[in-house]
Amino acid sequence: MNYFVISDDVDTLIGLRLAGMPGQIARSREEAEQAITGALSDRSIGILLITQELAALCREMLSSVKQRRTPLVVEIPSRNSDGADGDSITRLLGQAIGIRI
């Protein structure tokens, strides 16, 4: 089972790539939906991480994806999210998938 990250923030994507998770940048709803469609076509992806801002743009599409068995969709804060503390992504990943960075 593999991970895939869809982020609107380059720093978030780079940080998660350093942890071994491939991903893609999306700056608009259309780009995010294309990235989600691409991730869904890859059967090896078991966990799809997407930043909260992009998830809000693609709420309808993600609601249908969340009803499927795989992949598990996890919304994560980006580095620039309002109210996010410095290591909120690290803490969230540790709780969600049990890794330590």
Q: In percent, how helical is the residue content?
A: 40-55%
CATH superfamily: ATPase, V1 complex, subunit F
Determine the structural class based on helices, strands and strand pairing.
alpha/beta
Q: List the uncertain runs.
A: none
Helices, by number, come to: 5
Q: Name the beta content range.
A: 15-25%
Helix and strand run: EHEHEHHEH
What is the first-to-last residue Cα distance? 19 Å
Largest sheet: 4 strands, parallel
Count of distinct structural domains: 1
Give the strand order, joined by hyphens, for the main sheet.
2-1-3-4
CATH architecture: 3-Layer(aba) Sandwich
CATH fold assignment: Rossmann fold
Overall shape: it is: globular
| Highest CATH level, the class | Alpha Beta
β-strand number: 4
Oligomer: single chain
What's the rounded overall pLDDT mean? 85
- Radius of gyration, in Å, reads 12 Å
